[in-house]
Amino acid sequence: MAMKSSYTTPRDTIDDGRLPHEKYTPGHLPQGAPSSPMLANLVARQLDEELDALASSRGWTYTRYADDLAFSTDGKVSRGQAAQMMALATRTLVRQGFSSNKLKSRIIPPGARKLVLGVAVDTDHTKLSKKFRNNIETHLYALTSDRIGVKLHMHNRGFDSIVGMRKHIAGLIAFAHHIDKEYAAKLYSRFNSINWLS
Questions:
Q1: How far apart are CA 63 and CA 73, in angstroms?
Q2: Which of 85, 151, 177, 184 sits a CA distance of 20 to 30 A from 126?
Q3: Cα separation, 177 vs 180, whole angstroms
């Protein structure tokens, strides 16, 4: 049995005429800086300690990556017990000043596919999901295709620039490299063959 959730921080964004990506929230740091993960971990430290203690006290394991939370157990638990764990975790989130994203919160029963951040975690070793593989392979197919190519694919996928698209896809391959180095090597080979000026 596993439970997956996500949280968001309350935001009162200032509307001072800036573009959406330029808006800021008083008392908050901008997103995307190299220090962001470390700062997020510092902010969530007390939350992590409470949720870990909650999970451990009931024989569960708590894990978090950024704002994605997961609770898992090898033990036999009912759906009701899993729902109770989710409710207790949500109360802890609220007490710590966060809120639960109900649309992303779900209980995953034994035997069902278990994905965390697009990675399958229900076998002896982690694997990239089929959806992730299809997405990146579609990018590479389009970018190396004589019919589509770089500029048309950029337009079709809504990227603002070739540089931005290239960095996005390079990031996907880097993520794949952490999970499956052999598969990522093939992706890098295809990525490096792309004519970005076409």
A1: 11
A2: 85
A3: 5
What gap in Å lies between CA 82 and CA 106, rounded to an integer? Answer: 10
Tokens of 192: 């490096």
**Distance separating alpha carbons of residues 61 and 1, to the nearest angstrom:** 11
Which among 49-53, 101-105, 129-133 has the top mean pLDDT?
A: 49-53
Query: Does a structural domain hold residue 91?
Result: yes
Rg over alpha carbons for the chain, rounded to the nearest Å, is 20
Q: What is the DSSP string of 164-194?
A: HHHHHHHHHHHHHHHH-HHHHHHHHHHHHT-
- The per-residue pLDDT for 68 is 83
Report H helices in the chain. Answer: 36-43, 45-57, 79-95, 130-144, 149-157, 162-179, 181-192
Coil vs helix vs strand at 113: coil
Q: How many domains does the chain have?
A: 2
Same domain, 105 and 147: no
Paired strand residues for 195: none
Residue pair 72/63 in contact by the 8 Å Cβ criterion: yes
The CATH number of whichever domain residue 104 belongs to comes to 3.30.70
**Tens digits of residue pLDDT in 149-172:** 999 999 999 998 999 899 999 999
Angle between helices 162-179 and 149-157 (to 10 degrees): 80
What domain range includes position 92?
35-112
127 three-state secondary structure: strand
